[in-house]
Structure formats: structure tokens, C-alpha cells
Design a protein that fits this description.
The complex is a heterodimer of chains A (500) and B (511). With 500 residues, chain A is mainly β. In chain A, 12% of the residues lie in helices and 35% in strands. The radius of gyration of chain B is 26 Å and the shape is flat. The chains are: A mainly beta (500), B alpha+beta (511).
Chain lengths: 500, 511
């Protein structure tokens, strides 16, 4: 694993870093004004190493939970609080903190994490860790360049390298899909970045890196971090939202004219209105032109002019100052007439997708019955085909990602493989089949599968798979099923026949 | 996960441009001897009787550009092998003559190149029948006769003009195995094939595989990376092709539209009331609209097909080889019937399954010889969604557009009611002021134009020419949603001729 190589490199060097740290009080999160600090910041006092051991997902043997470790950075942001990105934390088994880039590791605890914002707060109960550390000031607004510094621990020493401002862009989060504005910086630092290194200027933190290559690095801006943290601390963070409608630029004069807009092109054209606000036709319609969102005019590229960050894609308005559940006023053009509309921002939740991008909050679930291995069809399963899973995973399984969650089936269950046993002779090569019904009952979840298995008919359990090029049906002997499952579990060393 | 998919290639040979070393000094010696050779037609003692019937086929091919469907790629020189059969015609592989603009035949030890033409091409079985323009040229050639399916472990000899030299080459090998194999040329057909360790190389394609002075197959494909494994088309398939064309038309290998699977699971067998005797394969799926749907039902069990006992592994013992029962489904001609003994509702039943050729999946397979259909309007280039189009547009097109792949390969099977007979794709846009603001620039599936659902290319033309309003509205199709675009009608109509002129396009349509 590349990330292991990065962090377990030459860390046994004996040269010691002499810290001239003194104990200071923790500063509050940065004030609104951003005066230049009079003295050069000592990032050794606030930037720490974070080691996360987490359960990885074995797509083809979900009962296996191999553990992996990564190291990234954390930033002291308040007394007893280390901020880092949420990546790898949802399935952690051990988290440790290290200050000064070397020396002792302190056992830590995850206070809070949120996948959509990709933020987490850590703490440790060991007072010695906090000695000599102080909170780093976060920028209230991140200025557009021209230069920043990227600061990280590297082999026990603090590295501080210049990076160049590239642009502000809006994209889906690194873990979740809620939109976020990202500060992109150009860099000639070799190796892979994105391990929550800090990007700073004039002694203030501009953000944490969330992705990066040897040339370009994405930085989660401090302004966004502050807003989420403040809401979280005030117990007012309902999660991030997103726009569930899809749109296209309204830059084709013929198209916007056809949709009733007079004059020069402006606004973005809705082509799929989404379902969260569309009950009884009250929400957006296909063909609506979005003219204003939250008081910001939308131009024909689908951008708005952000007072702090310039032209940004309209998606950013879902998270710019709002959270899930907030209402955004919209001005739209429908049938040639301007209308006002209140859009309630839906919460970004993985379970809203037929094939969820992540399945956090629980160890991977599965059911082994008569040697047939069933799992939820989710992106972590598809990622079992490796880094190039989009090329290598079965196309048809991937295509379910585009399916809208139907009312009767909001998720899917896949037969991922067969553990050969006498009961399943003849099916040993089956796999990658999406379940339609079991014993005549529609199956969308493993729980439904288990419930359906309790009702065999005519002495057999009948498995029906989605219509397609694969096998359509299987029958398993019902009387022998429990015994066979027990045999399979023992024979293949599976800790339990199911984990729901 | 291991990817077990093998890449199978047809083994036509790409020729070098020019004459190459034919005109080196050694070549002159050969030419000097030629007159003598022609004057002494007797076979040399060591010659096979078949030698004189084997010909080299030289083609100049030109393949269309599917994402710019009015254009063709540059001409390529290809070569393969063929052999004279009864009636003075030449049998070869369809892939040897696919897209050929010119076909020349070179006889054994004859310096002349004889122009030839395709009489029938069966691209689904990779066989073609040629005739030389002057039939007298082959009148004196003794045609090769066909034998039967050779036995595994028996010896065969191939004859042909493979890469590595200009003269006829012979290789000897044993029949390794006989089973149903995917045919690379159509891309979506699997038929009976024979594997041999006799070397079959590029250029061997179309050449005879001989046993006891009779043709037992036509060499046709290999698998890169697999050593000593070449494949030839057995006489079962060859005779089917030759019988098919006797009425002056090639119908193709029939496909009844039935998916058959193993029936080895004891519980499933008990459920269907079958003994554990290794007999019977289960009908798992029936294609909507196929002939099998009229006669068979899911969970019918095939006990016998045309008198052959069907095993629970879906195989039959066919002339000493266990091969897929589908071989028997491919033996009747279109319009014929296959007699089946089946097991339904715990009782035996005999039925006759009508057979018909199926081309409903032609767009999903490789197409040949017919240039792509297209329609150009306002610089928008519309063409049929096909495997050829996706190949032409490159892997990135398939990667970018899951919708194209789904529509081409899955919708017809999964949801035939919503499938379109000829999905239409916007292949590209020829830049012009009239389409400069058109946001979709290609690789997009067309859903509706001016409210007309696009089922085939003719609908595009009808929807555009029938529009009376100020603008055309185009709705595209994505997995979840489809973007839309519009174009000024009067401006488009005014620009059409100029766009064609600018881009050197002779015709706005090929429908």
C-alpha cells in the first residue's frame, strides 16, 4: 500500500528535534479579523501526527476484517481537540497521536466524525500530550493566493514548502458527495499529498489537504472548517446538504429561448428535478431555468459570483452558508414566467443511493446460507476490484449505481459468490448476481433476505435474480439448509454465518 | 479477481505495401522457373492432391469511421487463404474478405492475380464464398471434398499462406479438442470449433484443414498467448453455410432465444421430479420474441435434442465429443425445426422448436460490409449506436458513457419493452456558427427530438423535417437524466449545405 510506505518510511532515525516549546494557554479558534502574526508561527506546537488503525473491507470475504494503518496529520484547534479529516476513521480500531513529529504515541479517542464534511475531532485523556501544544488560528476567509505554505511532518522534522494558489473549485467531498469548495494549490512536492497536511499563510491555517498528487493538491478551506466546527460545538450541525436536482449551463441561446427566456442567456437549466422537493409537483420541474439561488444570480455557466471567492459553481450554495434542512429561496423561470420557490436542502446521506458509496457505522454485513454469500451491493464491494475498479468490476453491477432508489427497493443485495458444498452443487461458479426475490418475496436488504429464507415453499428455497444475462434462478434444499450453512461456516473458517 | 476472458483473434494477415522481397534476386530465379512450372502441370511426387486447389486471397480493404460515418479509413492490404470447392467457387473466411474493395486470387504456382468477388458472406459463422470473375480460370482445378468431424487425437494438415513467407505453407498437428467456442469475427456468436496444435498463423485464415485428402475444417482464429493452439471451423458449420446459400440467400445460423443451464443441483432436480441420473438441462431464460418463447417455458428440462441425450451439464455426446447442446440448436436451417424431448410439470413431452435466424443483436456484434447509417443536420452527426461505433470512438467512449454500453448490450435482454430497435447516438458535431452554442458535442444517446421518441435514424430525419416551430429541441439520454439542447431551425436549414461543403461530405444521409 502506497500510503503505508509514505508513513512508515525512515521513521527510526535517531536525531532528535529539540523543542523549545513552552506551555501556553490554548487560543480560541481564530477571530474574524486576520492580522498578520507578529512572530513566525511555531507549527510544531499545533501540528501533530495521527495514526489510525482501521478495519479494511474484504469484498470477497466480508467476514474477514484485515486491519490497516495510516498516518496523517492533525491540528490542535481548541483545548483537548485535534482536528483531522474523517477519512479512515469510521472503521477505526485504534487511534493514536504524536506531537513533535517523533517520540511517544498517545492513545486517542474519536470525539466526532462526519463523512460528508470529511472532518473529525480527536482527543486524548493523557495530559502530557497537551503540554506545549496550542491551538492554531484558522482563517475566516481564505484569500486567493498568490502563495501559501504546505506544512507537514516528514521523518520527524517539520517541512514547510511553498505552494502556489491555483483556483477555488467546487466538487464532491473526498469521502461523501455533499459539495464543497476546495482550494487547489500547485506544488512541486513529490509523493502523494492529501494526508491532512496544513496549508498556511502568515501564520494562519488556510486549510487541510484532502487529496493531492505531485503537482496539484486539494485543500479544504479553513472558512468551511470553522463553520462546521462552530455549528457542531453549538450542537447545531444537522449535516451537510446537497442539491438533488441536476442541471446544465444555460449558455445555448436557442435552448433558453425555447424555454421562454428573453434576452441574453442566463441561469442554469434543470434537466432532472430530483425527488426530495418535488412532491406533488411543488418543486423544480425539468426545463426550469434557475435564475437566482439564495439571493445570488446564476449565470449561464451555472456559476454565481461569490463575494469572497469569485465565480463558483452553483452547487456550492448548498453548503456555502447552509446546512441540511435549511431553506434556500430560488427564483426560476418556468414557461416564460419568473417564479419564486423555496428549496429545502436535503441531507446528504449515503443510504439515499441505491448503491451507496460508503457503508459506515457498522462492520460489513453479509449472509452466508447454504454456501451462497450475499452482501449489500455497495461501492465498497465494487472497489474490491482494486484501484481500477471502474474498469474491472462487472459492468452490470456498476450500472446499478445509476438506478434511482425505487420506492419498493431502495437498495440491492448481491450474491457475491458460492462456497462449494454438497447443497450447492451445480452453482459453484455462480456469482455477481443481484437478487430479485427469495421464496417469492422481493429482497432489497439482507434482513429481508433472512426473513424470506424463513418461508421456504415445497421444500426448497427459491432464489430469483434480476433479469439479465446471468443465471435467473437457483433452488436450495430447505431441510438441509441450516445444517449445510453450519458445515460451510466450519469448513471455510467463517466466524459467523451472518452479520447484519 | 482473475479475469478469465481470453482475447481471440481472427488470423487474417496484413500485407506489406509494395512487392517487398519478391523482387529480390531470388525472386527472379523463381520467375525464371515459372514458365517451366506452368508447362508441367503434373503434381510433384511429394505434393498433396489438395495443393492446387488452395489459393491465396489478396484484398484491399477499407473500413468506415463509425464516429465520422461518411468517411473511410485508408486502404489496407490484407491476405488470407481459400480453397476451391465443388462448383468452382472458393471457400474462405468472411473476415478475409470483410470490407474488401478489391479481391485478387493467386493460384498455386501461377504468377497471375485473378480478380474475384464475394458471392455469399456469412459473418456470423465467419465463412464466405467467392468466385473468380472469369470462371474458366478455375475450371481445371479439382475441387476439394469435405470430410467429417475429425476425431480428437487424430492428425490434420493445414495448407495456407501464413505470415513469414510468400509460398504455400503446410503444418501438421493433432486435433486437441472439439467444443463450442466464441467466434471472434462476429463477436457475439459461439459455434462449434476444433482446436489443433497445428500452427495456424495470420494469413492461414480461410485455408483448408485436411485429413485423408478431405477438408475437415477451415482455419480461422487463434488465441494470443496460448501456445500451439489454433482453431478451425468444422464441416458441421461449413455444410450449414453451404446448404443455407443454396436458395440464393444467406439467412444465418438460427438462434431460438433460449438460455440453457446445468441441472446438477440435487434439490432442483427433486423439485422438478427428476431422478439423479445425470440427464436433462434446464431452460433458464427465454428471449422475448424468440421462437423458443412460443414452445418452451422456464424450468422446462431438455432431455433430448434431435435424438441426442442432453446431460445435466448441458452437454451432449456428439460424435464422440461432449459438446454444448447449443450445437444441435445451430444445425437446422432457418425455417426448420428442432425436435426436442422435454420434461415439464413432472411429465415428458415432445415438441418441435421452430428455428429462425436472429439479427436483433446485430448492432451489439461486429458488422461488416455495410457502411454505417447516418444523418447530418445543422452539423449534428447522428448515427446508429453499435459495437462498431463504440470500437471506433475508443474505449474512452465506453468508459465515459455507461448509458451507451447499457443500451447496446443489456436493455434488450432486461427490458425489451423499452428497447429501441436502433438506438441513435449523436456521434459528433461539425463546428459551425449554427451549432457553436450546442453544449453536447457527441457520444450522447438521443432520446427525443421535437417531442418525437427516436427509435431509429429515420425518426431523426422525420422529427427534424417535420418541425414547423422556430427551434428544434433535442433531448438526450443519460443513466439518470438527460441534458437538452436546442437549435435555431431557419439558421440550421440555411447552414446545412454549407456545412456539408466545408467538411467535404457528399451526402447528408445514408439511410
Amino acid at each position: 500500500m502506497n500510503f503505508l510506505a509514505q508513513f512508515f518510511g525512515n521513521r527510526c532515525r535517531t536525531a532528535a528535534l529539540v523543542l523549545a516549546a513552552c506551555i501556553v494557554g490554548f487560543a480560541p479558534v481564530a477571530a474574524q479579523a486576520q492580522p498578520m502574526l507578529k512572530t513566525a508561527p511555531d507549527w510544531t506546537r499545533s501540528l501533530v501526527n495521527v495514526e489510525i488503525t482501521f478495519k479494511a473491507y474484504d469484498a470477497f470475504q466480508p467476514w474477514n476484517n484485515p486491519t490497516l494503518s495510516v498516518r496523517k496529520h492533525g491540528l490542535v484547534v481548541a483545548p483537548g481537540e485535534v482536528l483531522t479529516t474523517a477519512q479512515y476513521l469510521p472503521t477505526h480500531t485504534l487511534v493514536r497521536l504524536q506531537k513533535g513529529g517523533r517520540g511517544r504515541w498517545y492513545d486517542a479517542r474519536v470525539k466526532w466524525w462526519d463523512a460528508q464534511s470529511n472532518l473529525a475531532l480527536l482527543t486524548t485523556e493523557e495530559p502530557a500530550f497537551w503540554t506545549g501544544l496550542e491551538a492554531a488560528p484558522l482563517m475566516a476567509t481564505v484569500p486567493p493566493g498568490p502563495e501559501f505554505n504546505l506544512v507537514r511532518w516528514r521523518e520527524g522534522n517539520l517541512e514547510n514548502r511553498k505552494v502556489e494558489f491555483s483556483r477555488f473549485v467546487v466538487s464532491e467531498g473526498t469521502v461523501g458527495f455533499a459539495p464543497q469548495m476546495v482550494l487547489e494549490v500547485g506544488t512541486d512536492i513529490g509523493g502523494r499529498l492529501g494526508w491532512a497536511e496544513i496549508v498556511e499563510r502568515d501564520g494562519r491555517v488556510a486549510g487541510l489537504t484532502t487529496y493531492g498528487s505531485s503537482r496539484l493538491c486539494g485543500v479544504m478551506p479553513a472558512s468551511f472548517i470553522r463553520r462546521v466546527l462552530e455549528a457542531h460545538r453549538a450542537d447545531r450541525f444537522p449535516g451537510l446538504g446537497y442539491f438533488d436536482f441536476t442541471w446544465q449551463p444555460g449558455s445555448n441561446p436557442a435552448l433558453v429561448a425555447e424555454l421562454g427566456l428573453a434576452g441574453a442567456p442566463r441561469g442554469a437549466v434543470v434537466h432532472s428535478p430530483g425527488s426530495k422537493n418535488g412532491k406533488e409537483g411543488k418543486g423544480l420541474h425539468a426545463g426550469d431555468i434557475l435564475l437566482e439561488i439564495g439571493g445570488f444570480e446564476i449565470d449561464s455557466e451555472g456559476d454565481y459570483l461569490d463575494p469572497d471567492y469569485g465565480h463558483l459553481q452553483l452547487e456550492n450554495l448548498a453548503t456555502r452558508t447552509s446546512f441540511a434542512g435549511d431553506t434556500l429561496p430560488m427564483k426560476i423561470l418556468r414557461g416564460g414566467k419568473e417564479q419564486k420557490l423555496d428549496y429545502v436542502i436535503p441531507r446528504a446521506e449515503f443510504t439515499d443511493e441505491t448503491v451507496p458509496r460508503e457503508l459506515f457505522g457498522a462492520p460489513p454485513t453479509y449472509v452466508v446460507t447454504g454456501g451462497l454469500v450475499f452482501q449489500p451491493l455497495a461501492q465498497p464491494f465494487l472497489r474490491g476490484w482494486g484501484d481500477e475498479w471502474r474498469k474491472n468490476a462487472p459492468f452490470r453491477l456498476q450500472y446499478y449505481q445509476y438506478a434511482d432508489p425505487a420506492d419498493e427497493r431502495k437498495s440491492l443485495v448481491v450474491l457475491s459468490g458460492v462456497l462449494p458444498d454438497a447443497i450447492n452443487v451445480g452453482y459453484q461458479e455462480a456469482g455477481m448476481l443481484v437478487v430479485d426475490r427469495v421464496n417469492g418475496r422481493t429482497v432489497a436488504t439482507l434482513a429481508e433476505l433472512v426473513a424470506a429464507l424463513a418461508e421456504p415453499k415445497d421444500g426448497v428455497n427459491r432464489f430469483e435474480f434480476m433479469k439479465g444475462r446471468g443465471l435467473q434462478r437457483m433452488l436450495l434444499d430447505a431441510a438441509d439448509l441450516d445444517a449445510a450453512t453450519k458445515r460451510v461456516v466450519e469448513h471455510y473458517g467463517i466466524p459467523a454465518a451472518s452479520r447484519l | 479477481m482473475q479475469n478469465n476472458t481470453m482475447q481471440i483473434i481472427a488470423v487474417g494477415k496484413k500485407r506489406r505495401r509494395g512487392c517487398g522481397r519478391r523482387f529480390e534476386w531470388a525472386g527472379w530465379i523463381a520467375l525464371a522457373c515459372l514458365a517451366l512450372a506452368l508447362a508441367t502441370p503434373r503434381l510433384r511426387a511429394e505434393e498433396l492432391p489438395a495443393e492446387r486447389a488452395v489459393v491465396q486471397i489478396l484484398t484491399s480493404t477499407q473500413v468506415p469511421v463509425y464516429d465520422a460515418p461518411w468517411r473511410f479509413r485508408s486502404v489496407q492490404q490484407m491476405s488470407g487463404t481459400g480453397f476451391v470447392i465443388e462448383g468452382g467457387r472458393i471457400l474462405t473466411n468472411a473476415h478475409v474478405i470483410a470490407w474488401a474493395k478489391q479481391i485478387l486470387v493467386r493460384r498455386y504456382q501461377d504468377p497471375r492475380l485473378l480478380p474475384a468477388r464475394v458471392v455469399f458472406a456469412g459473418h456470423d459463422c465467419d465463412l464466405a464464398l467467392l468466385e473468380v470473375i472469369d470462371p474458366k480460370e478455375l475450371a481445371a482445378v479439382k475441387p476439394l471434398e469435405f470430410g467429417e468431424l475429425p476425431e480428437v487425437r487424430s492428425t490434420v494438415v493445414t495448407a495456407g499462406y501464413p505470415a513469414g513467407g510468400d509460398q504455400m505453407s503446410f503444418t501438421r498437428g493433432v486435433v486437441s479438442r472439439i467444443e463450442v467456442q466464441p467466434y471472434a469475427h462476429p463477436g457475439n456468436r459461439a459455434l462449434l470449433a476444433v482446436q489443433t496444435d497445428a500452427a495456424i498463423n495470420p494469413g492461414n485464415s480461410g485455408g483448408p484443414v485436411i485429413q485423408d485428402d478431405k477438408v475437415v475444417g477451415v482455419a480461422f482464429q487463434g488465441i494470443p498467448g496460448l501456445q500451439n493452439a489454433g482453431f478451425f471451423i468444422p464441416t458441421e458449420v461449413i455444410r450449414h453455410f453451404l446448404d443455407d446459400v443454396k436458395d440464393g440467400r444467406y439467412d444465418g445460423i438460427p438462434m431460438a432465444g433460449v438460455s440453457i443451464c446445468d441441472l446438477q443441483n440435487p434439490a432442483y432436480r427433486r423439485f422438478l421430479g427428476l431422478a439423479d441420473d445425470g440427464r436433462g438441462a434446464r431452460v433458464d431464460f427465454l428471449r422475448a420474441g424468440g421462437t423458443a418463447e412460443r414452445v418452451l417455458k422456464p424450468d422446462d428440462v431438455l432431455l433430448e435434442a434431435n435424438g441426442y441425450v442432453v446431460g445435466s451439464d448441458s452437454l451432449v455426446l456428439y460424435k464422440g465429443n461432449r459438446v454444448s447442446v447449443t450445437v444441435l440448436f445451430q444445425q437446422p436451417q432457418a425455417g426448420g425445426k428442432l425436435h426436442l424431448k422435454i420434461w415439464r410439470d413432472h411429465a415428458p413431452l415432445e415438441v418441435d422448436l421452430p428455428m429462425e435466424a436472429y439479427d436483433g443483436d446485430r448492432l451489439a456484434g461486429h458488422q461488416y460490409d455495410e457502411p454505417p447509417r447516418y444523418y447530418i443536420y445543422g452539423g449534428l452527426v447522428f448515427t446508429s449506436l453499435s459495437a462498431n461505433y463504440l470500437d471506433s470512438a475508443g474505449q474512452s467512449a465506453a468508459d465515459e458513457s455507461a448509458q451507451l454500453v447499457y443500451e447496446l448490450h443489456h436493455r434488450q435482454v432486461e427490458d425489451p419493452a423499452s428497447a429501441r430497435p436502433e438506438p441513435v447516438v449523436l456521434a459528433g458535431v461539425l463546428p459551425n456558427a449554427v451549432n457553436a452554442d450546442f453544449g453536447i458535442r457527441g457520444r450522447a444517446l438521443v432520446n427525443r427530438i421535437n417531442g418525437v421518441r427516436i427509435e431509429r435514424l429515420e425518426d431523426v430525419k422525420r422529427a427534424l423535417l417535420g418541425q414547423k416551430g422556430e427551434r428544434h429541441l433535442f433531448e438526450f439520454w443519460g443513466p439518470k437524466h438527460g441534458p437538452m439542447e436546442a437549435m435555431d431551425r431557419a439558421a440550421a436549414e440555411a447552414a446545412n449545405a454549407d456545412i456539408l461543403r466545408t467538411y467535404g461530405i457528399v451526402s447528408a444521409e445514408r439511410l
